[in-house]
Amino acid sequence: MTAPLDDTSILPLELTDVSFAAGGNRLIKDVTLRFEPGLKTVMIGPNGAGKSLFLRLCHGLLQPTQGSIRWQQETGAGRHQAMVFQRPVMLRRSVAANIDYALKLRQISRRNRGDIIDRVLHQTGLRRLADQPARVLSIGEQQKLALARAWALEPQVLFLDEPTASLDPAAIHSVEEIIAAIHDAGTRIIMTTHDLGQARRIADEVLFINRGRILEAAPADRFFNAPENDLAQAFLRGELLWWNKGQDNRKQGMPPKGENQ
Amino acid sequence: MTDFSDAFAAAIGLVLGLDTSLTEIVGLSLRVSLTAVAIAAFIGLPVGAAIALFRFPGRFFFVVATNALMGMPPVVVGLIVYLLLSRAGPFGVFGLLFTPTAMIVAQVLLVTPIIAALTRQVIEDLWIEYEEQMRSLGAGPGRAVPALLWDGRFTLITAILAGFGRASAEVGAVMIVGGNIDHVTRVMTTSIALEVSKGNLALALGLGMILLVLSASINAAAYLIQHNTKRWHA
Fold first, then answer.
1. What total number of domains does chain B contain?
2. Which of A85, A91, A162 to probe the B interface (max B CBs under 10 A)?
3. Residue A254 pLDDT grade (very low, low, confident, very high; cuts 50, 70, 90)
4. Do A61 and B135 touch (CB under 8 A)?
5. Cα–Cα dist B22/B12, whole Å
6. What's this model's pTM, rounded to 2 decimal places?
7. How many CB atoms lie within 10 A of CB A70?
8. B197 — contact with chain A (CB < 8 Å)?
9. Nearest CB to A105 within list B129, B138, B151
10. Strand partners for A28
11. Lower CB count within 10 Å: N or C terminus of chain A?
């Protein structure tokens, strides 16, 4: 159940001056960060800030246009990570077969696959759906299946990109419980959300990103009680942050009606 | 008018009575077209998937070529295969001209581009949806091919049926390379053409009815497959 021993740990993950540009726009700007093992990091920020891009860069789905992203243990680092996307992508086969496919890609022997599938389906409450076609499940169930599939791989690091974005409260609750359980079993969690309540519930450590720049990285307590960055303060107060294309001055919106500054 | 009704009645008699010359012709038609489609699927599915997933020099040419070849006139294919298989041609030594094998070769050339082009489209669309998840799980385009073909299976069956429709309905290619020889290379379409010109409307109509039923069943099958599998596609 626990992640492999520390001497084969791929963490820490180190980002040095990482930038990512597409179509001439710099979307991630000069990020230097270090992810140590063990914590749950939640990245928050307004829509379009670069949260999803950032996860994809860390996970290796995109290559930075500048800077470097290094795992302590580079060889085979891909095998020890998994990612859960905002919209789960399920293969057109049964629930159990979806997990089986992921395990097969990691060359887990057929004998062990059955036990692993049983275990993660049990842990995510999907056992009774094992033989259902995955695509007829509700979005909430599919997201749980995506978590089960990721968990089956026993990753050292799990990236989650707004995993509860379009779910109802009950599904959000069970997804958060599963994330906590995966973390307890020894997996480093790095996730994004635009739901401040969720960030408060989950985070040990918060990254605040706006317009591709990490403006604050702090332990959750400190971030929520005394954020240092003025935009982070505004974001926590529930103000709108926006900008116009080509305009460099950052802007803050008016506070919501009826609230005193 | 009585000519037609007589012919129609005779045709029904032939079909219901399982006339031996009729069943022989239908049997050969099915053997040739089904074999051709099986071979074309064996080539077209992986080739279409490869064109969809890999970026290589000349890819643009392949995409345009498969699309263009979908509409290739059967008589032209027949002519090309005729030239290749005739005694003086490069494959003349095998003596394949005017055999069922020659007809299969011609139909493979007709059907492969259809299956490849439709497969490319299906797999390309699927890959847009699956790419990040597959890469995250550790499967690049190469390792993802079997899973993609499997997940596209319902649409791909329709592509294969479209290929079969084309193969069983064409007359130009099999006429040229088969020669419409009685008991050897006579299939439904070629004998309809022949019997009509001979004035033997009963046999022609009988064969025509079978061909129609066949193509209607294929289309019904394609529709039912799509319809019944919507729940899987969600």
1. 1
2. A91
3. very low
4. yes
5. 12
6. 0.83
7. 12
8. no
9. B138
10. A20
11. C
How far is the C-alpha of B123 from the C-alpha of B59, rounded, in Å? 15
Judged by CB atoms closer than 8 Å, whether chains meet at A92 and B130 is answered as no
Asked if residue B6 is part of any domain, the answer here is no
| Mutation for testing the A interface, residue in B128, B137, B151, B230 having most A CBs under 10 Å | B137
How many C-beta neighbours within 10 Å does residue A187 have? 25
Domains defined along chain A, listed by start: 6-252 (3.40.50.300)
B128 touches chain A (CB under 8 A): no
Determine, yes or no, domain membership for B29.
Answer: no
Answer whether residue B11 is part of any domain.
no
B5, part of any domain: no
A4-8, A161-165, A225-229, B144-148: lowest mean pLDDT where? A4-8
CA dihedral over B175, B178, B179, B183, signed as positive or negative: negative
CA distance A168 to chain B (A): 20
Which tokens belong to B49? 């998937």
pLDDT mean over A228-237: 88
User: In which domain, by residue range, is B173 found?
Assistant: 34-179+217-233
Chain B hits for A91, Cβ within 8 Å: 130, 147, 150-151
Q: Closest CB to B133: pick one of A78, A85, A135.
A: A85
Q: How far apart are CA B168 and CA B33, in angstroms?
A: 6
